[in-house]
Amino acid sequence: MNNLIVQADIPGKMKENKMHGYFEQLYEDSKKEFMQYAKNTGADYLCIHAPKYKLHATYERFQIFEERFDGYDMILYADSDMIPVRNAPDIFKEYQDVAFAAFSEGSVFYGNNSELQKEFGLHSRMENIISRRMDKGYLQEEQKYLSNEWLENRYFNGGVFLIHKSARMTARSNGLEHCFKPYALYDQSAMNRLIYENKIPFTHLSYKYNGLFHFYSNELKAKVIKRSYFIHFCGPMKNLYGVLEQEFGHGWQNQDIPEHEICALLDRHAEII
After folding, report:
1. Which one, out of 16, 123, 213, 247, has a CA that is 20 to 30 A from the CA of 145?
2. Which residues lie below 8 Å from residue 87, measured CB to CB, with a gap of 6+?
3. Domains: count for the chain
4. pTM of the predicted model, to two decimals?
């Protein structure tokens, strides 16, 4: 199969971290690490720099639906605030037969039989992030276009996803522009709507390929950092990248730092993360 890894880094759109000055370094390191990951997995790599949409910079990921990418069977899109750890397995081999795969923030993630509960032996039911946002009226625009079943069970984080050529062509033939609305969660909700309305088969991606941890306790954050393949430093967690780099250098990417040391580091910097 002919595979491609795509990221987007739009000049002038990525603001520097005022707290640590590590945002720009995070973006640069993300590109370098995914370039290496592409080599490791036999994929091509492309970083989008030229904007095409008069919207938030994160909408530029929709360029992957253009005909110029039709030569690729599978495309992996990864946000530029994400770092693949050293020796991360080949995601293209693990999910080679999917039409679309992404990490669900709904019940498959947080429920009693979720991957995280099994992995970490959690006894309490984790909070459903999407249900909480719905209860607060935060997703009113999303609820016009997505069913409650999708929102509560399949709504996925758009930071990393795999999409096959067949799915890209299906979405392109049914139009993309109608998905571009002022959603609370920007391009993420637009992508959810695109997959939902085109009835593209959805596969749940393991949390290990989208290591999100911004809503968790420091103990759980440490477990996710230690065990994930792609670490997603989204939102305020960008500060954590600077903390890890200052404390351990790039060595933390080898995942040989004990969980209790990572947890202690998080406790010491609780005011910024």
Report:
1. 213
2. 254
3. 1
4. 0.91
Q: How many CA atoms lie within 13 A of 179 on its CB side?
A: 23
Angle made by CA atoms 150, 98, 74, in degrees to the nearest 5: 115
CA gap 273, 260 in Å, rounded: 17
Q: Read off φ and ψ for residue 181, nearest 5 degrees.
A: -120, 165
pLDDT digits (tens, 9 = 90+) for 146-172: 998 888 778 899 999 999 999 999 999
Q: Please check whether residue 152 lies inside any domain of the structure.
A: yes
CATH number at residue 131: 3.90.550
Closest CA to 75 of 156, 157, 165, 147: 165
- The encoded tokens of residue 149 equal 């079943």
Q: Which residues contact 263 (CB under 8 A, 6 or more apart)?
A: 218, 219, 221, 222
Which tens digit of pLDDT belongs to each residue from 73-97?
999 999 999 999 999 999 999 999 9
